[in-house]
Amino acid sequence: MRKRMPSTNALRAFETIMKRKSVKDAADEISLTPQAVRYQIKMLEELIGYELFIRNGNRLDPTLKAMELLGYITQSLDVLEEGLNALDKDSNKLYLHVSPYYANNILIPQLHEFTEQHPNIDLRISIGAENNDFDTKDIDIAIQWGYGQWSGFQAEPLMNDLKIIAATPDLLKKQPIESIKDLMAHRLISPWVRNTLWQDIFDMLDTQQEMMKEEFLYLHDNEAIYKATLSGMGVGLVSRPEAIEAVTAGDLVAPLGIDLLSQLPDHKIPKFYLIRQNNKEESPLVKHFTQWAKESSRSQK
């Protein structure tokens, strides 16, 4: 006869508190009140006969027993979820988390081609330049900008994001860029998301960051960088399609040429990656979207 087991609500409350380090944050994530979360923890402690948290005001500090238990509970919830997903292989739900530039310029303009093939799809798309919590169980696929640095996940490159060093004509009239030394006299605009672009440029041009006369201006996504560059705030790294269009229109100038960054080694050129969780059973819909996203990205190259 099996030992009496705790409810899934109690297990989820425990796991989420351990992850969020806050009763309030845990309650928000699992859609319960803080009082209900505390009650679930109390029931779990009474069932197993051990104190799991030391109550310190509004904070719950985990005990050693809680640390020991966490791995088992997480594994149990994962197995349960995998079993439920296996019963729902034909699910029409698809949850994507997508980098802003890719979403606005690549994915959404073409997405009707995919949704027309799945008229009953329950599609949800969150947009963000970073995804610090990809282990959130609801996300099926993320498409993010970077260098393939997502350890423990399947990360497949979809397309390069070549940049062009650009500035406004007015800015270059005030401070021309005819050499790397001239470049270092300007404020340089950089993506906020972790990257090595400017450092790789400095290395390629045989200069050092210490020669910069101004601090970097960090901005969160490509659109903000593009607009800041257009406004004359500094010299920006603008994605190639927008940069070429602006250069052609006379709104921007590429003082070091439009092909400079294409000389970087392939592993130093940032890309948009399609990211999936390892060892997670995927529905036919997720598999089809993966194939479609690869094909649609190839058409953009």
Automatic annotation (TrEMBL):
GO terms for biological process: DNA-templated transcription. Residues 6-63 form the HTH lysR-type domain. Pfam families: HTH_1, LysR_substrate. Keywords: DNA-binding, Transcription, Transcription regulation. It comes from the Bacteria. GO terms for molecular function: DNA-binding transcription factor activity; sequence-specific DNA binding. Belongs to the LysR transcriptional regulatory family. This is LysR family transcriptional regulator.
